[in-house]
């Protein structure tokens, strides 16, 4: 039987790289995004993507109520593998923070599906693709950070680990913590990007209250401000600061360093 792999968020930061990696390996794919008719808020759109698929790359929905019905339908559709992208340290974060991720992990790990969970640190590409990119481009990044290092992970490394787990049976029931090879402070990260681009980029260290007010002024919902402040609090406490060797061990090569990312991206 021909395997068909469903990739949710196929045009997103991780999804499009999962697509590219799997296509390079000759896999047959189903690409799910709003552009192809998939809608987390409309359950009637789910079945056409799941029916006949053998594996799925899953990104948690924003609405936690959608996680369990989707996973139940995935199990009923006969998936043989599901790989969920989640967040590093989610098991140490209160359930009211990143509720979609909590709901997705619970739904996947309590199901009868053969599953793998990828818990990732902040991405290298957050500096260059959405998220912090507008502020980096404007020369001033304002975040509630201190000098605690963050082992940023490269999205292509995540994609390659995901492709491995989607196409082999060796990773079922595993939770992997995906990080870069070393911790880098935000100040150092910004300085490296500034040096590579020849521009002045300032890092402004906000208090959590200042960050909340800044997000609200940008139109972010209160729930989002709570989630992001919760994440940064975990980072400041060092809960996400220690690198792991999961990427290197799984891919049989070193994880991509921040320096390599900067050299490749900010030329």
Automatic annotation (TrEMBL):
Record-annotated NAD(P)-binding domain positions: 9-166
Pfam families found in the cross-reference section: NAD_binding_10
InterPro entries noted in UniProt: Ergot_Alk_Oxidoreductase, NAD(P)-bd_dom, NAD(P)-bd_dom_sf
Top-rank taxon: Bacteria
Gene3D superfamilies in the record: NAD(P)-binding Rossmann-like Domain, UDP-galactose 4-epimerase, domain 1
Listed PANTHER family: PRESTALK A DIFFERENTIATION PROTEIN A, PTHR43162
Protein known as: Uncharacterized conserved protein YbjT, contains NAD(P)-binding and DUF2867 domains
